[in-house]
Every structure is written in C-alpha cells, then in structure tokens.
Amino acid sequence: MPTEVICTIITGVAGIICAAMAAQSSKRDKRAKEEAERVNRRAEQRAKEGRLQLAMINANCQLTVGVAMALKRGRCNGEVETGLAAIEKTTKEYEQFLEGIAIDHIAR
Fold first, then answer.
1. What does pTM read for this prediction?
2. pLDDT of 51-63, one tens digit each?
3. What is the 3-state secondary structure (H, E, C) of the chain?
4. Are the CB atoms for 91 and 56 separated by under 8 Å?
5. What is the pLDDT of residue 61?
6. Does the structure show a pLDDT above 90 at 4?
7. Nearest to 50 by CA among 105, 104, 97, 101
8. CB under 8 Å to 19, separation ≥6 — which residues?
C-alpha cells in the first residue's frame, strides 16, 4: 500500500476516535449539569424548609410564652391569640411549601 493511503486511513480512524470521545464527553457533561441542577434545587428546598422550621419554632415559643403569662396572671392579655395566629400562619406556609414540592415531583 502506498504511504498516502496508510496516512489517510490513520487520519480517518483518528478522526472517528476523536468524534466518539467528544460525544462521550458531551454526554458526561450533560449528566453532570443535570446532577448539579438537581443538587442546587434540593439545597434551595432544604434552605427554605430550614427557614420555615425556624419560623414554626419561633411561633411555638410565642404561644408557649403567651400561655405561661396567661397562667401566671390568671387571665389572657392577647399573647395567646398572637401565638395562635403565628402558629396558624407558619403552618399554612409550611403546608404550601410541601404542596409545592409535591407539585414539582408530580410535574417531573
């Protein structure tokens, strides 16, 4: 075989190998990007859930203090109602958060 034919064959095979490697790299990059997006979405959900849990703990503390003050004084002075309102608000926000997660899960 002439040298030109051998060089042409080697060049063609090298081109095919490079194209296959590029395709595999592209697939790997796409999977990595999808995984990073999934991890970021989950981190955002955890952060929001953490903030909601802190708000719920704060509302629970408000209610506890209100009940304690009402027991100490022998009458309510608005603290219990404020605490209950905070509990209801945070519970509603948390339920909306959970519904949002469920909708996202169903949509996928």
1. 0.64
2. 999 999 999 999 9
3. CCHHHHHHHHHHHHHHHHHHHHHHHHHHHHHHHHHHHHHHHHHHHHHHHHHHHHHHHHHHHHHHHHHHHHHHHCCCCCHHHHHHHHHHHHHHHHHHHHHHHHHHHHHC
4. yes
5. 92
6. no
7. 97
8. none
**Residue at token pair 């959900």:** 45
Block residue for tokens 């592209």: 26
In the numeric block, the tokens 């996928």 are attached to 108
The torsion region of residue 2 among left (phi > 0), alpha (psi -120 to 50) and beta comes to: beta
Position 106, amino acid: I
More confident site: 96 or 77? 96
**Which pair of structure tokens corresponds to residue 35?**
């995984």
Q: How confident is the model at residue 77 (pLDDT cuts 50, 70, 90)?
A: confident
pLDDT at 1 over 70: no
